[in-house]
């Protein structure tokens, strides 16, 4: 079963926790056209090497965090790292804390040319032991102008070029080749 054209994955924060993250932590799978597993931390994991740099779509992935120590997470990606900017508590409709939405920006001081302005929302459960796995929404803020131009061009054609891959499948393609 594939996702129909025009589908956009736009869950509420509560849905991210209740319908996706908690089931993932309990061992259930998510439809692969919606979200894929992907390691975004490590030696060759700059975001532009994993995700399609010119897309203004959000890339939804789930990953296991790298524990540096009992209280610290290692969020390095080759010569750069994901820098924490803000963290918000996420509560369900009854006002109970269900997890956290942490906002990060990617920084690489060694990179001479810009490969975009990458941001990430990382969703983690509040329960100890279940917060090793997270769901991340990652996107390139600078890709909007390029993607808008491509959309106008695609409207004039019946089908997109054969190199087009749905945004959710673009994640980790390079990692699996």
From TrEMBL:
Residue ranges of the NAC domain?
3-141
Asked whether the keyword Transcription is assigned, the reply is yes
> Which UniProt keywords are listed?
DNA-binding, Nucleus, Transcription, Transcription regulation
UniProt KW DNA-binding keyword: yes
Q: Which Gene3D superfamilies match?
A: NAC domain
Identify the stretch(es) annotated as Disordered. 155-177
Top-rank taxon: Eukaryota
Q: Where is the composition biased (Basic and acidic residues)?
A: 155-166
Q: What is this protein called?
A: NAC domain-containing protein
């Amino acid at each position: 079963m594939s996702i129909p054209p025009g589908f956009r994955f736009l869950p509420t924060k509560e849905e991210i926790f209740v319908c996706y993250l908690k089931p993932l932590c309990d061992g259930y799978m998510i439809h692969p056209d919606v979200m894929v597993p992907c390691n975004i931390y490590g030696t060759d994991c700059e975001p532009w090497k994993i995700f399609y740099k010119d897309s203004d779509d959000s890339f939804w992935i789930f990953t296991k965090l790298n524990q540096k120590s009992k209280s610290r997470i290692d969020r390095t990606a080759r010569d750069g790292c994901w820098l924490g900017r803000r963290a918000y508590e996420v509560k369900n409709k009854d006002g109970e804390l269900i997890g956290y939405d942490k906002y990060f920006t990617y920084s690489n001081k060694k990179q001479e040319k810009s490969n975009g302005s990458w941001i990430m929302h990382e969703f983690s459960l509040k329960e100890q032991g279940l917060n090793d796995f997270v769901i991340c929404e990652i996107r390139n803020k600078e890709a909007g102008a390029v993607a808008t131009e491509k959309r106008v061009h695609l409207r004039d054609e019946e089908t997109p070029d054969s190199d087009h891959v749905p945004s959710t499948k673009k994640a980790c393609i390079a990692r699996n080749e």
